[in-house]
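Technical annex, item 7. During the second reporting period the consortium partners agreed on a shared format for inverse folding records so that results from different sites could be compared directly. Each record opens with the tokenized structure and is followed by the designed sequence. A conforming record, contributed by the partner at site C, is shown below for reference.
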């Protein structure tokens, strides 16, 4: 994922801003905005969970269900296709029936454009036109912005901007637990500090194979955005206590926890994790030393 532009006041030599570890963490308070009037807004991942996972996984595997329902799903703002040919990335808009339009070879000065960009810019109130002109180039925001160093990569502009409370950031990543067919694409994980960063959420896409036509549709999610505490990103937070290898070095409390949960896993009845989870949250968690 390309590095976001940093406001002048927060660059090296400017005001450093609050320490990551000292930022308040009370809740992400996610807010979403869309550049395009008819653009698909993010939807909670849990809203289409059953369309993405087998029914058995949703019913009997709480860890998978929780991971798959965490966050919101992002959609392309319009239908288009790309293909990686030789050392180039090619782009085509799709019609209402999914048919391919003319192919365009993309480059640093020739990104793929959203056909609704002009209408989106025309809807801007008069008192914001001058500021908008100073913020965009003559053609607006690129829909598909190719990586000049790698023809298989591009940044997709979904049209969505996000805002989080201080102390929270947005993790942009692949849709959790959604199988990716061969010959399509991967989404590169990236974290954007959306408490202050106001540009669109960047989705970095990497194509898997040459000469394959890869289609994108506004009705199918391309990525997920998940709120994460900024404190977790601080270098000081990367420390973890490590015991000596081998089960003989485990303390009693860890051993007892292991035995209790292993016995639950050997339970002949399905749903042992879910029952233990409900019991844990009904009772106060054990005190930590």
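Designed sequence (site C submission):
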């Amino acid at each position: 994922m390309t590095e976001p532009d940093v406001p002048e006041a927060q660059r090296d030599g400017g005001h450093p801003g609050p320490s990551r570890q000292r930022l308040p963490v009370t809740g992400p308070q996610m807010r979403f905005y869309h550049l395009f009037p008819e653009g698909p807004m993010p939807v909670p991942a849990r809203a289409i969970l059953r369309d993405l996972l087998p029914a058995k996984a949703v019913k009997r595997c709480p860890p998978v269900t929780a991971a798959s329902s965490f966050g919101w799903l992002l959609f392309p703002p319009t239908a288009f296709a790309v293909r990686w040919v030789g050392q180039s990335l090619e782009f085509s808009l799709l019609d209402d029936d999914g048919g391919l339009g003319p192919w365009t070879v993309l480059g640093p000065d020739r990104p793929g454009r959203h056909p609704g960009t002009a209408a989106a810019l025309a809807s801007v109130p008069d008192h914001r036109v001058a500021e908008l002109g100073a913020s965009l180039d003559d053609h607006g925001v690129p829909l598909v912005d190719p990586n000049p160093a790698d023809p298989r990569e591009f940044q997709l502009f979904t049209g969505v901007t996000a805002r989080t409370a201080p102390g929270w950031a947005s993790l942009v990543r692949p849709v959790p637990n959604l199988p990716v067919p061969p010959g399509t694409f991967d989404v590169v994980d990236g974290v954007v500090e959306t408490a202050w960063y106001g540009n669109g959420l960047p989705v970095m896409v990497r194509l898997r194979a040459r000469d394959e036509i890869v289609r994108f549709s506004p009705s199918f999610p391309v990525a997920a955005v998940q709120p994460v505490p900024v404190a977790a990103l601080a270098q000081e937070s990367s420390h973890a206590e490590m015991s000596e290898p081998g089960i003989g070095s485990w303390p009693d409390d860890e051993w007892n926890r292991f035995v209790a949960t292993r016995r639950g896993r050997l339970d002949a009845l399905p749903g042992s994790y879910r029952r233990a989870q409900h019991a844990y949250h009904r009772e106060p968690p054990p005190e930590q030393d």
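The mean pLDDT is 83. Residues 29 and 164 are 6 Å apart (CA to CA). All partners now use this format for quarterly exchanges.
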